[in-house]
Amino acid sequence: MIWIDTVLQGILLGGLYALFAAGLSLVFGIMRLVNLAHGDLIVMGAYLILVLVTLLGLPPFAALLIAMPVMFCLGWGLQKFLLNRTLGDDILPPLLVTFGLSVVLQNALLETFSADSQRLPTDALTTASLQVGPIALGVMPLLTFASAVLVIVGLNQLFYRTSLGRAFRATSDDAVTASLMGIRPANIFATATGIALVIVTIAALYLGLRANFDPNIGPARLIYAFEAVIIGGLGSLWGTLAGGIIIGVAQTVGAAVNPEWQILSGHIAFLIVLLVRPRGLFPRAND
Amino acid sequence: MALLQTSGLTAGYGDFQALFGVNIELGEAETVAIIGANGAGKTTLMRSIAGVLRNETSSVRFDGADIGTLTADEIVTRGVAMVPEGRRLFPSLSVEENLLIGAYGRRGGGHWTLETIYGLFPILAERRHSPGTALSGGQQQMVAIGRALMSNPRVLLCDEISLGLAPVVIKDIYRAVPAIKAAGASLIVVEQDIAQALAVADRVYCMMEGRITLSGTPDSLSRDAIHDAYFGAGQ
Amino acid sequence: MSYSVSVQTPASRVATAAAAVLILVLIALPFFAGRGTIRDMFFILTMLVLAQFWNLLAGYGGLVSIGQQAFVGAGAYALFGAVILWGIDPVPAILLSGVAALVIAVPTAFFAFRLNGAYFAIGTWVIAEVVRLLVAQWKTLGGGTGTSLPREATRDMWFVSLIEDALGVRSAAARDILAYWLALLLALATIGGIYWLLRTRRGLALAAVRDNVEAAKSVGVDASRMKWIVFLTSALGTGLAGGLIYMQKARISPDAAFSVTDWTAYVIFIVVIGGIGTIEGPIIGVLVFFALQSLLADFGSWYLMSLGVLAIVVMLVAPRGLWGLLSGRTGLHLFPIRRRLSGGQLTQAEE
Fold first, then answer.
1. What local confidence, expressed as pLDDT, does residue C339 receive?
2. pLDDT exceeds cutoff 80 at B66
3. Is the pLDDT of residue A217 over 90?
4. Which domain range does residue A62 map to?
5. CA C252 remoteness from chain centre
6. Could you tell me the fold of the domain covering B4-231?
7. Best residue in A17, A32, A34, A96 to probe C by mutation, most C CBs within 10 Å?
8. For residue A283, is it within any domain?
9. How far apart are CA C298 and CA C307, in angstroms?
10. Do B84 and A177 touch (CB under 8 A)?
11. What is this model's ipTM?
């Protein structure tokens, strides 16, 4: 019974990792850009929500509604004015610029908020749990997982049902021809990063509600997100959720055996998948 | 006054110069053909007008305004659309989505909608949900033309639309030209097939090595003059 | 009408002479410089070695790794393991650091080469994390909290008493001087070795692979073999540097020895600011880095922030770095790799 509980907790934790990863997957899918500052942006989102909660006295979920448009604008500007300038055939500029950005963000957060760990305020609902038969499931992990599924459903709708989604796919296929359709690739990329940061903000909310955070934890979130994306297969959003679940389950099972093995087992699971299925579980056909 | 005009247009890729001062004109409701051998600069000329390559100020004028320094997306919005060489359909998009994305930069209404495009090329209605790249070459070319028409352009640039297609298929595609003209578009057609170009065009420009070497109406040009302009005199 | 092909430039001949003088001065440094200077120079030289190897990997091999801390840490822990568990002297144990890094590098390459570009970068990082977490489980070497080199091992280290007698210094200062000389030796061997590698046929092949994998393959260059050679060479050198750095520190913990900031971020900034893809770049970069650190170290996170901003600006505005700006303006090449055709008559068409 304890094992079923462990695996269920792992699946729900996978929802959080899928939220970390969805934005990374979106940006990579559209412009082949890997943002090494992704994890630090999640942490920054958590601090933004914290500031809104403390300054305005808002509940965290209300603060999220304000933080999302702010982060969208930030992502839009970041892509339009900085990251677009790094795109091209050479892989060095985007990697090194986003790596630099990661270090800058981490230290800016450290300077502003100190290294002390913080947490978003929780209330009765968020600490409650549901009794399903003999197993108790936390409301917060369930909410996280549901949000991850909603985000992925929403992104799929956006991609396959809207004019903007068509423009995303067309620009991803061939940016020059897309510009002949009246699409401005620079703006499409900016919008994509804006949307990625909206998802980052949702991830940040759950990060801050579920556990403590400090300015240094960004890179580890980037790594979990990256592992989920690779396990799922590049460009597949449902694959990313599956990847998140695999990392989540590996971590909770590892932790159940020995608490020190939690993070390590996640990484090992990733390496095993990489060994067996180098292109991930659900690779996109034309890549 | 000409609807579209280039004056002293130069263009190139990096250190390589492909166009050396090209002057062409396209009148309202006119069809102009540009012929020339491989590497004459025809595609470069199309890409320059469409804004894929950046140009000097006032080297390209459209409808009385300077569009030489505008980007491709701005130029489409103003009413100049291009069917690119090699069709370049979006592989992730279905036939219908390829057509719909052609209307992305459209402002206001016009003759061309999904229905009228399917009326022009009925086969596309049958294949509307297939991936664009699953179609035959001729059908793909129809999608590429339909996609460009979806922006309801006043000028349609067609770059080598018969390239690699069987003669019977080429005929099918050129059968659409009168309808395109009737809907109010002027055309610039780049062709390697001289007979086809002479048949469809009101006027013809011949290019060689990045320059216009000959121009006139089809019946004013002798075969020898075209031959010389095409391959260079004295060869 | 005779042509000759050479790689030397007039500047490189002057540089050779100047370098000879500089090397003599650096060897003699402990005879007239204080202990602080020696320690600073040790820091500069070891960072230079790390930077040269990362540059070989990313700048010449096109393999952007964010996991070099795996090899620093593996090398350092191998040294501590050899000294503490087997009682080997720390100086020869440095060689085991290189071996350990190689041993880690083989499976790392096996996994990471399945990933491309940016994913290779994060993949190497994941593996470095795995190695760190595994080492933290190694209880005999202090687990997560780390351990120190035993006092007798550092006191009786090879050459230390010799240096004490020759220079008339205390044991602690003699250890610093020994570490400095070893770092100087490693740095010179690194620069010389990389310069030699780049000038051989392998080096030409490397440049070909970096510029265009497909074209290189078509002329018979085995791209994946070149990737392996570069990756293993970098791992070996990085591991040796890691062993040396921690021999001097004499105290280790997994978080410090596998620090992505200290052993990869700093190194990337050094190479990018100085000029990626050149041997001169990391040299300029490490000097700028040291100057900035001396000026700004008191400002803590502001220091890292300004380094990051500087690296971003350099990458966007001058992607060839400070050395690229300088050599672009002056045509200066201290370590020329390009073969130059001279003599005969070049007509305009040939140019």
1. 64
2. yes
3. yes
4. 2-276
5. 20
6. Rossmann fold (3.40.50)
7. A96
8. no
9. 14
10. yes
11. 0.92
